[in-house]
Every structure is written in C-alpha cells, then in structure tokens.
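Hey everyone, long-time lurker, first post.

I ran two proteins through the pipeline my lab uses and got sequence/structure pairs for each. Pasting them in order. The first:
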Amino acid sequence: MATTNAIDTINCIAAMHLQEQKTPRCINYFQRTTVVDESCRAAMFNWLCQISDALSLNRETVGLAMSLLDRYLSSCARSSDQILSDRSRFQLASITAYYIAVKINEPVELGLSMLVKLCRGCYESSAIVSMEQDILSALAWRISTPTPLDFMRYILAMIPSTEQSIVESAEQHLVNATKDSYFSTISPSIVGAACVSMAFKESSFVCISSEQAVFWNVVCNALELDTSKDFVDVQQQLGKVSSNPKHFANFGQSTSTLTKGSCANLRESCSSVSVNVSVASHGIML
C-alpha cells in the first residue's frame, strides 16, 4: 500500500507534469544562427560550473540558469535574435541567466559588483540589469517552471531503497543532459525520468525489487512514459553522450553557502572570462 509520503510525492510529480505542459517547449535555436553554436553553450556551462565551485554555490543553480537561457533564446523575442548574432551578448545572456538563477535558488546574494568582477569588467552592471529585464520580459516572468532535476529528485524519492550509486549515476546523466542543448528541447519530465531509468539499467544491482517496480510503474503512468517515443530517444542519446569522454563533466561536490575561501577562489575565477578569445584551459571562451 502506498504511504502518505509516496502519495504526496506522486501528486507533486503529476502537478509538475501539468505545469510543464503549459510551458512552451524549447527549440533548437542554433538553427537561427551561424555565429553562436553548441560549443559556445557548452563553454558557458563549463565556466558557470567553475564559478559555482569558486563561490561554493550549488551546482544545480547552473542547471536552472541553462534552463532560463534556453527558454529565453527559444522565445524568439527580438532581443533573443540579437543574442544569437553576437557571441559577446550570448555570453552576457548566459551570465545574467545565472545571476537570476542565484536569486531564485541560493540563500546568499550574488551582487552585481561581484558579477562584474567575475567578468573582468567586460560588462557594466547596467548591461546586466538591462539583460535581466529582457530575459524576464521574454519569459513573461515565468521563471519557476519544473526542470529535469525537479522530476529526477521526486522520482528517486518515490522509488524506495534506491542505492546511492544509482542516485549518483542519475545525477551524472543529468549533468551531461544539461550540457547538451538537445535535451532542452525535450520535456523536463522525460529527461529527468530517462536519467533515472539509465541509472538503473547501468547499475550492477541487476535485480530490481518488486516494490521498486510497482512505484516505477506509477511514475510511468503519471508521466505517460509508456507511450512516449521521446523517452526512448532520450535514453539512447544519454547513452551516446555518456560514452563520449569529451562530453563528460563531473558534477562534483558543492554547498549552498559562501565560505572564507570563496574570495581567494574568486581571484582565480576572474581570469576565466575573455570575450572573443579562443577556448583556453580552465577558461572561456567565445
């Protein structure tokens, strides 16, 4: 019999599924440009991960930032077209999306002065504020929408006695998915569920308990996974991505508070951004 916690969890999953259906799907916005490409997005993802680590912030905030960026560039707002025709502005949009994500997801504030310092003065605070308004306007201020991470967490909470190795494997698949824009065009519920499914399939714990199978079926029914071709395709793509060492990115450990070492680490991070310079080791970029 399902416990009260399990019922609450599946209700949350169903509610998020309903909410994502009301949110416009992202598109492959790279088809609209020859200036900004997948490597630019991947470079920004890597740099934002470095910033999160340097400031001892939560890496999941980077995932939220990439979601905001993808939704903004998929909105086809006039300002988003300008972003895709200028690598410097694409970089600014990515940084600003992270600035917004920190406001939503962190217990500490990333001030504008620190953000300008992180960018080595390449952008003024007024440019960041203006970009923030453009992003929020294009998204009609709908910034709190379900992400693949939200679904993955609830699904893992739903399935009892899940081994830690499976949780870590699912998290790694999610990192790889966040870095690749293909997955942004798929419903977050499908991406989150596919990460969990792949983790179980790849686990050395071959035998899934009958109780786990029951709860997985409940999840499949709630998210309509059994009739979703995308669910199959996403798992195949996750398998390809995870087998590519160039794509592999370790999520690592993170905390959600600033530490005394953050300022020292910040000095190293400041050298990461250099607009219109080719990719260098440990830095961007565009």
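...and the second, right after it:
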Amino acid sequence: MRILRCSEIIEDATDRFIELYGDRKEGPGKSIRCGMAWIADAKVVLMATRDQHKPEAADLRRVSRLIDLAEHLKRPILASLQLLSDVENGFCLQDIRNRKEFDTTFLKLISHPFPIVTVTDHSLLQTLDTSLRISDSLLVRGNGSAADFDQNCVKKGQQIIRNVDDDLGLKSSISAMFFQLLTVQKDDLVKRRKDRLRHANT
C-alpha cells in the first residue's frame, strides 16, 4: 500500500505551485511543503508532508500560519493524506513535546470555513480511519470503486468520497470537487467535521 508522495501531489495535481516558507526566525522547515497552488479553475492552499517525514513543532507552526492565510484569502485547502493523519494522530496521542502545536493545527483545520480535499490511492481505502475526519472529500485514484466506502462515510458524517473521473483527469476532478463543496454553507462544513469526530469517538 502506498501514500501519494509529496512530489506526486504537487506535480500531478497542480498547474502552478508557489511554495511559501517559514519566517526568518524558523526558516523553511524540514518536513512540510506548502504554499499557493492553481489547479484547473481553482485557487487553493496546498499542504503536503515531505516523503518519510513527520511534522515537527516549527513545521506545524508553519502549517498553522498557512491555514490563517487560507482563511484570510477565502481559499480551500488541498492536504496530503499523510499530513492529516499525522496531525490527527499527534492530537490524539498528545505528544508532550509538540502538544501545543498539534492542538492549534488540529483545531484550525477543523474550524476552517472553506473546503478541505485529499487525494489518495484506492489501495489505501480500507486502512483509512482518523485521517478521514478532517477532510471534506477524498478523491481516489487507481482501479476499483469507492462507492461502497462512500456510502459508509456519508452516513457517518456527510463526506464525499469519489473516484477520480477518467474523462476529467486528476486536476479537473479536484477543481470540480472544490467548486461543489464551495456551495455548502461554511457553518455546515465545520459542523460535518465535528460530527465525524463525534461518530469516531462513540
């Protein structure tokens, strides 16, 4: 089973990507790539974990600032599955060293008033659990149908899981999903994420 590499997300899913680095005090960070991305007709903030890296405190602060920028610019977020999984697992485990940073990043993602979309491979569908709570939609690449999994998730938290449309291609599928989710009221997006968290804890 394979999670899409950071470079694949940037190269395959974007038409243009401008990386935004850390501040002068903290530098660019080691485990995260994030910045502004253009995907077909959508303008988004992209956040992805570098291959085989776990986010450190400085990286989480960088992500937190990017979430603030996304909200200020009214931009949705395209996040890598690994990043969302690391943030949620770090929040649940309450890593003492980075507890404040995990808490802040997790809560900002949950409260982001614009859509959050993730792309993954079909081979990973049956292993997904916590990382699905934050993402409003999961787009699935590869052979096999996400239909059965989709129904299960919709019942538990009104989440859209869909195969990448072969006719549209990856970029246009992502763009179309963002525009679909932008029709959902901001308060409803946040409520759905919180509902998924409650379902997962019952």
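Reply from user beta_strand_b:
Welcome! Quick read of the second one: Residues 48 and 80 are 5 Å apart (CA to CA). DSSP finds seven helices and seven strands in the chain.
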